[in-house]
Amino acid sequence: MYGTFGGYTRWAVVFLIIFVLFFLLVPAYGAGAAY
C-alpha cells in the first residue's frame, strides 16, 4: 500500500498545500502592493 502510490499521494498532498498557500497569498500580496 505504501509503494509508488503512497509516495505519489504524499507529493500530491504537499503540492496541494503549496498551491493553496500560493493561491491565498497572491491576492493578499496584490492588494498590499496596490495600496
Automatic annotation (TrEMBL):
It comes from Alicyclobacillus tolerans. The keyword Membrane applies. The lineage of its organism: Bacteria, Bacillati, Bacillota, Bacilli, Bacillales. It comes from the Bacteria. Keywords: Membrane, Transmembrane, Transmembrane helix. The chain crosses the membrane at residues 12-32. This is Sporulation protein YjcZ.
